[in-house]
């Protein structure tokens, strides 16, 4: 993902529309209609990727860019505070489907600057800083001038700006900060508690112990692999497996096919997205003369995980559970 300009600005966000009434998503507490107005202290000041926004009240016309950001908002039950969403990688889980469908979709991928402004947002929240490229939502400083705060996932900053700390605490920090912005901090705490319990169980089971894994995201001329500073690394750590490209900087990185062959992993994890399916990647591996000789390819030691469960966000623990279950079902050497 391309990086945005790193600047330090603090802007008030005007809140001009009334909050509509709507039921919360299943992961949220839906009892108090006025929670957003009463459970957080404003103004709320939030920094991400070197940019700071100050919100004078809870967003009422937020726009989410990328599936990870959208699903954090849905898990927090704030779909009634969204004016639009954009850019899915795969399908939204059934538990949030109705909430998702209640929000306008601004574009299949990134909407342009004019489309974003037409939604009259008071917040633009994205998983990747590329959402603020000139051909997408536009520069964050410019959006601030129009009265819209901005927020980017910590692992989506790009250009080495992501946290070097590769832990679920960073993932939960994003959920906490977004919940504070929307005025529902207690919901983030409950999500974290549930996920910590599930993660502790995965770490106890260690379904991937003794296994070396290659996380294949996409790519043909080179392999876009899960590297040592993002979602894939967190998932593999959670299940006790070793990432063969853990020493490569960034969350994802281009690596040569020669390096993949040299690593000869025990298992290959395939990210399944609409724009790069697991099936397509398996065909690529099997059809290449050198790659087809990998042990994992010959013996079909493949694990498939939804792309939306491989990126830092509210579903990353789901991805770890899925990987653990599939590893447990494979007949693998330890």
TrEMBL record:
Coiled coil: none
Residues spanning the membrane: none
Listed PROSITE patterns: FE_B12_PBP, PROKAR_LIPOPROTEIN
Cross-referenced Pfam families: Peripla_BP_2 (PF01497)
SUPFAM superfamilies to which the protein is assigned, alphabetical: Helical backbone' metal receptor
Keyword entries, A-Z: Signal
Sequence ranges assigned to domain Fe/B12 periplasmic-binding in this UniProt record: 61-334
Signal peptide: 1-25
Superkingdom of this protein's organism: Bacteria
tRNA processing found in the keyword field: no
Signal recorded as keyword: yes
Family stated for the protein in its record: Belongs to the bacterial solute-binding protein 8 family.
Protein's UniProt name: Iron ABC transporter substrate-binding protein
Organism name: Streptomyces oceani
